[in-house]
Specification:
The protein has 249 residues and is of the alpha+beta class. It is 27% helix and 31% strand.
């Protein structure tokens, strides 16, 4: 019997399956190779492509940018809220102080050249008057008599209040109330004529205004804003009997 020459190609102990081939007679196949040919192709390279890396970095940078922008916006909002709260508390304390001083305005009068003169001089940017709003716990001589002369005004340093003895010619002690105040304006309500005036002379009116309206402008970050109007009614308006003496000339 003639031996097939193709059998010489069969390796020993490795060939397990022989399948006929119409062209060569027999074809030697390895079971492992046969099974591997039946399985789907697997990608040998398990890393990321350059496009995938760039896409991942872009998405990461975008997400981080959104997160940081949100955090910065929240931080700014918190700072603004804190500043507004502090400013509101400071303005509330300031308006309470001014209201307390103005409500105590007293129509103090003295005799001058046979004429009763009320100590009140109101202008558009300042006001000078005698008030009963004194600090009972203060050791200052201005607060001792129960009456004191007060002047409220604003300059380049801020809003100030000057105090002195009520019978003195002028005030002698200044206090800085708020350095953030840019300006202050006053208007005076005439009860008889029912209108607001920008000036008020106690010597001419022989009385105090029925109310005083204040408009305070505050310096902020690069801007000046006006606070809501503050209307302070005056309790004692009309003149009292003249007192001896008066401001020294």
């Amino acid at each position: 019997m003639r031996r097939n020459r193709n059998l010489d190609l069969i390796p020993s102990r490795r060939v397990r399956v022989c399948s006929p081939n119409p062209e060569f007679g027999f074809q030697i196949t390895n079971p492992r190779e046969q099974v591997a040919n039946l399985l789907p192709l697997k990608r040998k390279n398990k890393g990321f492509t350059l496009l995938e890396v760039l896409l991942g970095l872009t998405l990461t940078a975008l997400i981080l940018g959104i997160v940081f922008a949100s955090m910065r916006l929240a931080h700014r909002s918190e700072e603004k809220g804190r500043e507004r709260q502090e400013q509101s508390q400071k303005m509330r304390a300031l308006t309470d102080r001014l209201t307390w001083v103005l409500k105590g305005a007293y129509p103090y009068a003295y005799q001058k050249e046979e004429k009763k003169v009320v100590r009140f001089e109101g202008e558009e940017d300042k006001v000078t008057f005698v008030t009963t709003s004194t600090d009972p716990f203060s050791s200052a001589i201005d607060d001792t008599p129960g009456l004191k002369l007060v002047k409220i005004f604003a300059d380049s340093d801020g809003l100030k209040i000057a105090e002195g003895l009520f019978y003195a010619k002028d005030t002698d002690t200044e206090y800085l109330l708020d350095p953030d105040v840019d300006s202050v304006s006053f208007e005076y309500l005439d009860k008889d004529e029912e209108k607001d005036e920008t000036t008020w002379s106690g010597q001419e009116k022989n009385a105090l205004p029925a109310a005083i309206k204040l408009v305070i402008s505050v310096k902020g970050k690069g801007e000046v804003r006006k606070l809501p109007e503050l209307l302070v009614p005056i309790r004692a308006v009309y003149i009292v009997p003249p007192q001896p003496g008066g401001p020294k000339n």
